[in-house]
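Hey, quick one: can you model this chain's 3D structure?
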Amino acid sequence: MGNAQSPPHKDPRFASASRAFTHTELEDLKSLIESLAAQSHSEGQFVSPSIFQSYFGLHGPLGDRMFDLVTQQRKDQKLTFEDLVVAKGTYEKGTRDDIEEFIYKLLDLNGDGVLGRSDLEGVLVAMFEYIFKTENSEPGSNTYRETVNVFLNAARFTKHDEGHTEESLSFEDFRNWCTLLPSVRKFLGSLLIPPDQGRPGSQVPQLLQVENINSNMILLNEVYAWHIGGLLPHQELGEWKLLYHSAVNGLSFNTFVGNILNDKGPTVFIIKDKDGYVYGGYASQPWERHGDFYGDLKSFLFQLYPKASIFRPTGANTNIQWCAVNFGSESIPNGIGFGGKVNHFGLFLSANFDQGHTFECTTFGSPCLSKTSLICPEVIECWGVVRKSADEQKQDGAKGTVLERFKEDRHMLNMVGLANSSE
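Sure thing. Here's the predicted structure for all 423 residues.
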């Protein structure tokens, strides 16, 4: 097929990378390159940038940068079979360090070796355009700006580059950012999987709310749901239903408990306080009356505004969920909470629903989630996560080949490995 399949001996990395693939996988990649080269008006010699970007659904600066990296920054605008094998061997089948170094370079949209805030902003804009179809959103609008900023605010720029006045994102800064934003990490690790195969990191739960509530009063939007869903398995990313909202049900702990106790699945608990901060927790176990902590290590705390972050269990203790109802002892405070210890929770809301607190918490490695440790709630809502049935999961599984489903599982494992090693 001409230059679209360069001789392996030209680049020793090809021989090494090709060993990570089965014979069938290599033949599939070869067929893909031949098909794309035929569309590139190159007489089958190579794949052009526009055809590459169209096939993988990558456009704008992010698509340009990915093409540049996959073609080993030759700047000749020609993608070969050898290039794709080397890139996928590193980006999809490499070690954790290999994969993350590739992604770190990918985020440097300008290719100048300095990963600044504008680079991250460009990446986030491209991600949101792909996932949420925001191409027609006005970039200067307040809503658009706030959406991008809550994810930018999770990043710390600590690297000083000579000749630049602003600090940039170091590799360690990048890893920390990915730990706080698993949805971002999952998506950025799957860009060479064709979109029609169900790109990991692009699933957004469908939010089912009651009819008698103004949608503008709802705290949880699709961007926040996507962010929270970054740590959840595929079967929990289908439908989330609104179980309780303080504007509809009133600030009543009894009503809240009654509504959530009828739901036996995982829940997403969210608070907006009077300082404007939005945060909460994902509870993997049903809420039940207990006089002590319970739950498992699948639960986590999160921030949504003004900064988006997720805080996973560190393993320091098992003080995960708290749900005390109608206890008469000061040592068992009535209310709902996550992490920490009694009267010093990572997140706690008293049974009166008029106040609570949030402290730095070793259970989740989380900071105070709000402006101050005292919580004065303004809005409270809770969503039930509807797990897909076994039949629905089988139908989802039938949509892709075994290899395609393995790739998604591999990306999820890479993301989980990132979490485990950072705690």
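One thing worth noting: The mean pLDDT is 88.
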